[in-house]
Structures are given as C-alpha cells and as structure tokens.
Amino acid sequence: MIDLARVGLRDFTRSAKILIITNTIYAFVLPVIDIFVASYIMRNSNDPSKVILYQLAIYVGIPITFLINGYLLNKVNVKKLFSLGMLLSGVSMVFMMSLKEIDYFGLIGAGLIMGMSFGLYWANRDYLVLSTTQDRTRNFYYGLETFIYTIIASTVPFLIGWYLMKGHADSDTMSNEAVNSGYRVITTIVFLITLLASIVFHFGTYDKPKSEKFLYFKFHKLWKKMLQLSVLKGLAQGFIVTAPAMLMMKFFHSEGALGSAISIGAIIAAVIMLILGKYSKPKHRLVIFSIGLISFFLAAFFNGLLFNTTGVILFMFLLLIARPILDIAYFPIQLKVIDVLSKLENRNEFSYILNHEFGLFVGRFIGAGTFLGIAFFVNADIALRYALLIIGSLQLLSILIAKQLLKQQATLEKELLDKEVLEETPVISNPISTK
C-alpha cells in the first residue's frame, strides 16, 4: 500500500516540476494583479464601483477565452497558449497605466485583456496539472504550490507598498503622480517576469488533449453537483479579489498599509498549507474544505459586524487563511471528478474544465452584481459591509454539496473499477467439446 503521508517532489515528473517552477516565477506577478491594480483604480478614481466594473470585465473575458482556447488547442501547442496567457497580464497592466483618465471605456478594455490572460492561463494550467499529476499527489502539489505562492504573497505586497509610499506619505497631487510613476515601474517589472516564466515553461514537455471535441451541454449528474460548487465558489470570486484593496484603501488610505496587512498572517498560512499538502490524504478534503468555508464566513462576519480598522485586520487575517485552504481542497476534488467522468463518458478533459468555468462565471456575475446592486441602490459602504456577509453565508451550502458529491464520486469510481476488472478478466473456454 502507498503511504500518502510520504508523497514528495520525487513523485512528480520532470514536466510537473517545470510547471511548479513556472508558476513560482509567475506567482510574483499575481499579488500585483490581485491587489495593486485595484488599489491603483481606487487611488485614481476613489470609486469602488469602478473596481467592481473592472473585475466584471475580467470575468466576462475569462469564459470567452476558455471557449476560444478549446478551439486553439487543436491547432496551437499548449505551451504557446499558456505562455501567451502569462504575457497578456503584463500587456493589460501596461494598457491600464497608459490611460490618462480612469474612465469606463479604459477599465473595460483593460479588464477584458486581463480576462483573456486569466482565461488562457487558467484553462491550460488546470489541464496541465490534470495531465501531469495523479490524485494521490495532488494534495501535496497544491499544498506546495500554495505554500510558495503564500510566501511570495507575504513579501511582494510589503515591498511594493513600501516602494510606492517611500517619500510620498502626503496625499497631494504631486505625490499622487509620483506614486503613479511607481506603478508604471512595477508594471515594467511585471512584464519582464511574465517573459521569464514563459521561457522557463518551454523546457517542459506536455501533450495536447486526447480528442478534438470539447463542447458539450449534457453531463453526468455528478458533474451537476460540481457545477453547483463552482457557482458558489464564483460568488466569492465576484469581488473577493478586489475587496481587500477597497477596504484597506478606505480605512488606511495607503498602499504601504495594504502591503503590510497582507503580509501579516500570510507566513502562518503558508506553513499551514505546506503541512496540509504534505500530510493530508484525499479522505481529508471535505474537512479541509469545510474549515476554509467557515474561515471565510468568519472573515465576512467580523468585517460586517465591526466595519472599522480592527474589522479589516481580522478580515484580512482570516481571508489569508481561508483562500489557500479552500484551494488545496477544491482543486483536487474538481480534478478527481474530471478523472472519473472523462473515463466514464469518454470525453476530452478540457470539456469539463471549460464547462466548470461557465459555472464560475455565473457565480462571479451574481457576486459582483450583488455588490453593484447594493452600491447603486443604497451606497458603496453598505455594499462593502454586507455583500461579503451575504455571500459568505451562502457559501456554507458548499459543505453539504461537497459531502454529497464525494459520496457519489466514490460510488461511481467503485463501479468503474469493477467494470474495468470485469473487462480485463479472461474468458476461460470449456475444454469439453460440444460438437
């Protein structure tokens, strides 16, 4: 019997290791995309609804690009598509920083380009992880990757915040322009990092999906459970990426404070991720998933209850714990379901990845729409305070759905295994002739 507690780097293929290295390099870009683009919009517009509009434009671009990516995979090497996804994130930031004014047209344009970047990156990343790892190694894969990302995410925001605010503690027009110049320097560095990640990635060897058809509209009932989870996950993604920046800029008015707050607690989260990834087993995923959801709910609860600097600090700390814990459980659950159903239905794995993204899109649209609706009909402060709490409460339903999904998956997997054994069993002919 394989001891899952001893899973380590030796269990990964060379291509899987290169994928980890590539994602490690690109991880230096993600905190900038997730946090400081939103803070840049807030600094130059002081309008939370513009941040959410930008986020909505991203979420419109992602599923469209997922669909386009499906067609391109039949003609273009997956390495080129994955690399292009990373490079486009730099292009989007360059476009954003070139805007003379943060207007709606510019926001939508930058958001759509970033959505294309995420679409190409995540569509191919999910497939690459699926094709280069096994179920028994995925807890460790995501634990290791999340550990690395969290360590980077604990230092990059602090360094960027310090750089942006160094010598610019006041808030007059000249200082604001100097900070914006700092953003442009960071954008240049981001573009160079995406270029380096793209070069490193090309040292790996990766196969294209096994069949050309990838667009389906009818799926197994087990996949419908997975789609329910994706919609609930998307609810939080609707504005959870930009919520920290909006809250920090509202209560602390400084990228320096934003960077420091994100760094606090991130190292603790990183250690937790490494331990969970190293020693947890597939059977622990529901417990880990539940802890992540409860942590997210508590983060939203304290933000809504207090809605002050203390509430924001508690929110940030719990969110830093919740997000990686959710990911370390959610992604292996998703990939295992794809493993099982792709064999059962004899379909391209990418067809499930694409369909899953549309589930996320529905959730993201509802989540962002909830914020914009409250902001428009009431005000932005009420939206920042209570929209998160509404979504955090709804997400607790994911625990029940995940429990049902894992039970159905286990049953289906056993049936498949029994069928394979039956098909592989040789038929022994009767030695007595019937003639």
From TrEMBL:
<feature type="transmembrane region" description="Helical">
    <location>
        <begin position="144"/>
        <end position="165"/>
    </location>
</feature>
<feature type="transmembrane region" description="Helical">
    <location>
        <begin position="53"/>
        <end position="74"/>
    </location>
</feature>
<feature type="transmembrane region" description="Helical">
    <location>
        <begin position="185"/>
        <end position="206"/>
    </location>
</feature>
<keyword id="KW-0812">Transmembrane</keyword>
<protein>
    <submittedName>
        <fullName>MFS transporter</fullName>
    </submittedName>
</protein>
<feature type="transmembrane region" description="Helical">
    <location>
        <begin position="20"/>
        <end position="41"/>
    </location>
</feature>
<feature type="transmembrane region" description="Helical">
    <location>
        <begin position="286"/>
        <end position="306"/>
    </location>
</feature>
<dbReference type="GO" id="GO:0022857">
    <property type="term" value="F:transmembrane transporter activity"/>
</dbReference>
<feature type="transmembrane region" description="Helical">
    <location>
        <begin position="354"/>
        <end position="377"/>
    </location>
</feature>
<feature type="transmembrane region" description="Helical">
    <location>
        <begin position="258"/>
        <end position="279"/>
    </location>
</feature>
<dbReference type="InterPro" id="IPR052528">
    <property type="entry name" value="Sugar_transport-like"/>
</dbReference>
<feature type="transmembrane region" description="Helical">
    <location>
        <begin position="81"/>
        <end position="98"/>
    </location>
</feature>
<keyword id="KW-1133">Transmembrane helix</keyword>
<dbReference type="InterPro" id="IPR036259">
    <property type="entry name" value="MFS_trans_sf"/>
</dbReference>
<keyword id="KW-0472">Membrane</keyword>
<feature type="transmembrane region" description="Helical">
    <location>
        <begin position="104"/>
        <end position="123"/>
    </location>
</feature>
<feature type="transmembrane region" description="Helical">
    <location>
        <begin position="383"/>
        <end position="402"/>
    </location>
</feature>
<feature type="transmembrane region" description="Helical">
    <location>
        <begin position="227"/>
        <end position="252"/>
    </location>
</feature>
<feature type="transmembrane region" description="Helical">
    <location>
        <begin position="312"/>
        <end position="333"/>
    </location>
</feature>
<dbReference type="Pfam" id="PF07690">
    <property type="entry name" value="MFS_1"/>
</dbReference>
<dbReference type="InterPro" id="IPR011701">
    <property type="entry name" value="MFS"/>
</dbReference>
